[in-house]
């Protein structure tokens, strides 16, 4: 095709009056159902939800461009999720896998979550088969590597994490049409990790930062967790749980929703013990479903009271 013919072909393509009902195309993908589930399952995280919607919109438009034989920008699908533990990174990764599958960017749609221990061996010749086995299981879906920065330990020359990274880099580049990789971890540690591994950084297109929850959002999360198990928190219990959350947020190893789930489990245990110690009276259904303030106040965080 000479220059004149090629130019005419491009002009005809661009001036094509083919009509596309974007709402109808969007509806057919069922992406909105996934986004609705995300809204329902996760409290807050508005910036994250908006970012996922933006990524979904870009992928949909690229799909429509492909159908009209327009040039493809080859959107990078590998992602980075940064934030504290318990901020919903794994849940969002699962929904992202659903979106990629619905749009046809991956053929299976499953999510495989791994850590360093799943990829890196402890002796020479052990890492490559471990990493390749994980990648084989992840093919056609999304590989979610939590605390990915632990793959790289520059202070240990006998560490085999760099071998896993090299294999990962090759697959991310050569088989990017059959595997999406999401690297996750604390923001500051991930930034240092990318600085030390420019090859990885260049392959990550979408960076999504997960903010910590507010105390009020964590209270709402706690209430939802209890309701899912058909428990109810009394009004005084809600006030005490909010105070517990504010105190816990200032303690070491705080993990957002994960810490609240642990607190809820312990409150249920104290409630069961309280009920067991009152067997000399008849119980009602309300007794069995109610979490009282005292079930939370017995936490060590309230020892000063």
UniProtKB/TrEMBL annotation:
Q: Where in the cell is it found?
A: Plastid, Chloroplast
Every AAA+ ATPase domain range: 75-214
Which InterPro entries does this entry report, sorted A to Z? AAA+_ATPase (IPR003593), AAA_lid_6 (IPR041627), ATPase_AAA_core (IPR003959), CbxX/CfqX_mono (IPR000470), CbxX/CfxQ (IPR000641), CbxX/CfxQ_RuBisCO_ESX (IPR050773), P-loop_NTPase (IPR027417)
Q: Which Gene3D superfamilies match?
A: 1.10.8.60, P-loop containing nucleotide triphosphate hydrolases
GO CC terms in record: chloroplast
Which SUPFAM superfamilies does UniProt cross-reference here? P-loop containing nucleoside triphosphate hydrolases
Where mainly found?
plastid
Which GO molecular function annotation, any one, does this entry have? ATP hydrolysis activity
Print the keywords alphabetically: ATP-binding, Chloroplast, Nucleotide-binding, Plastid
Per the record, the similarity remark reads: Belongs to the CbxX/CfxQ family.
* Cited NCBIfam families: cbbX_cfxQ
Q: What is this protein called?
A: CbbX protein
């Amino acid at each position: 095709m000479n220059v004149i013919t090629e130019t005419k072909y491009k002009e005809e393509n661009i001036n094509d009056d083919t009509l596309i009902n974007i709402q109808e195309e969007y509806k057919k993908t069922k992406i909105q159902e996934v986004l609705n589930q995300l809204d329902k399952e996760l409290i807050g995280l508005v910036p994250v939800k908006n970012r996922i919607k933006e990524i979904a919109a870009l992928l949909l438009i690229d799909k429509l461009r492909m159908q009209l034989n327009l040039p493809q920008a080859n959107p990078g699908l590998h992602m980075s999720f940064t934030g504290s533990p318990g901020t919903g990174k794994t849940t969002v990764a699962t929904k992202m896998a659903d979106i990629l599958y619905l749009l046809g960017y991956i053929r299976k749609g499953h999510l495989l979550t791994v850590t360093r221990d799943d990829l890196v061996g402890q002796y020479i010749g052990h890492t490559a088969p471990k990493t390749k086995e994980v990648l084989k299981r992840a093919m056609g879906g999304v590989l979610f590597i939590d605390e990915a920065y632990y793959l790289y330990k520059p202070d240990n020359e006998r560490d085999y994490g760099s071998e896993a990274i090299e294999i990962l880099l090759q697959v991310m580049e050569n088989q990017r049409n059959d595997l999406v990789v999401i690297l996750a971890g604390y923001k500051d540690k991930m930034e240092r990790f990318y600085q030390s591994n420019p090859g990885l950084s260049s392959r990550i297109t979408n960076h999504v930062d997960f903010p910590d929850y507010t105390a009020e959002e964590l209270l709402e999360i706690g209430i939802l967790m209890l309701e899912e198990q058909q428990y109810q928190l009394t009004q005084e219990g809600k006030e005490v749980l909010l105070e517990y959350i504010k105190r816990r947020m200032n303690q070491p190893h705080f993990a957002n929703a994960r810490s609240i789930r642990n607190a809820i489990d312990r409150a249920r245990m104290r409630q069961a013990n309280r009920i067991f110690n009152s067997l000399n009276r008849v119980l009602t259904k309300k007794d069995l479903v109610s979490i009282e303030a005292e079930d939370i106040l017995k936490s060590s965080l309230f020892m000063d009271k």
